Amino acid sequence: MKKVLSLVLVLVLSVALAACGNNDSSSGDKDNKDSKDKKIVVGASPAPHAEILEQAKPLLKKEGYDLQIKTINDYTTPNKLLDAGELDANFFQHTPYLETEKKEKGYKIESAGNVHLEPMAVYSQKYKSLKELPKNAEIFVSNNPAEQGRFLKFFVDEGLIKIKKGVKIQDATFDDIVENKKNIKFNDNQAAEFLPKTYQNNEGDAVIINSNFAIEQKLNPQKDSIAVEKATDNPYANLIAVQEGHKNDEKIQALMKVLHSDDIKDFIKKKYDGAVEPAK
């Protein structure tokens, strides 16, 4: 009888211990989930994107979120990491580039909202305006096909180039040029991050540089360029991208609320003096 009672007691204790173990595991899983929900990992270009996020960090901390910033200095890695789930969001691109990446690579990512505009600009150490450019002028631009229309817009607006009728400027490519009065040539053999060096080396007749890379080299598009984009009706505002179906997640909404706050808008205006502007 004693042996039977001992066996029953052992079984009861085993079940109780197992239950406690399960409860501890459940509690641990819940803690891990809560911790993950409060952490926001964002991949971003160094300037101005990561700088803006650094300003957002303490504001998000007040809301209970831990913003972690991973600096990435190229245009291909951030979407790859986001699509793979290694990031909660990325911050480096505009809508035309995002749509091109999705179409070409099948990424399941989407915009959670625009944050700022980096006015692209044309820089030259030889000429003071686009109209001064000589015949057969060589213009260095990035090898980003999603921005060919953006490059062309400078010359279309100046009346130096015409593109096919019916083609929207943001969709235009070099193949859509139907009139080129000065036979301007576009050299697109280099990545965007190398263009400031091209300008410093005085290569070509002019260089079109994305403002994030210009800023890193202490160039101000409003002051140092011979032509600069206008912010009004500009489709190239930089955005926060997330995996499809996650833009309404609480932590992404918290991130966007902070990035759209007056504190961040005031920081952008003061810090960059027109080289970067809050999205409109």
Task: Provide a descriptive summary of the structure in words.
Keywords: Lipoprotein, Membrane, Palmitate, Signal. It comes from Staphylococcus canis. Its main location: membrane. This protein has 280 residues and is α/β, with parallel strands linked by helices. Helix content is 42%, strand content 22%. It has helices at residues 2-37, 46-62, 77-83, 95-105, 148-157, 195-200, 211-216, 221-224, 250-259, 262-272, and strands at residues 39-44, 66-71, 89-94, 109-117, 121-123, 138-142, 161-163, 177-180, 185-190, 206-209, 227-228, 238-243, 277-278. The radius of gyration is 26 Å and the shape is globular.
List its traits.
280 residues; alpha/beta; 6-stranded mixed sheet; 5-stranded mixed sheet; 13 strands; Lipoprotein; lipoprotein; Lipoprotein_NlpA; membrane; palmitate
Mean pLDDT: 90
What is the first-to-last residue Cα distance?
Answer: 83 Å
Radius of gyration over C-alpha positions, nearest whole angstrom: 26 Å
Query: Order of helices and strands, N to C?
Result: HEHEHEHEEEHEEEHEHHEEHHE
Kindly report the oligomeric state of this protein.
single chain
Tally of strands = 13
Tell me the fraction of residues in β-strands, as a range: 15-25%
Unreliable spans are 1-20
Helix content: 40-55%
- Global structural class: alpha/beta
Give the strand order, joined by hyphens, for the main sheet: 2-1-3-12-4-13
Shape: globular
What is the number of helical segments per DSSP (H or I, 4+ residues)?
Answer: 10
Biggest sheet features: 6 strands, mixed
Family: Belongs to the nlpA lipoprotein family.
Membrane topology: Lipid-anchor
Signal peptide: 1-18
Main location: membrane
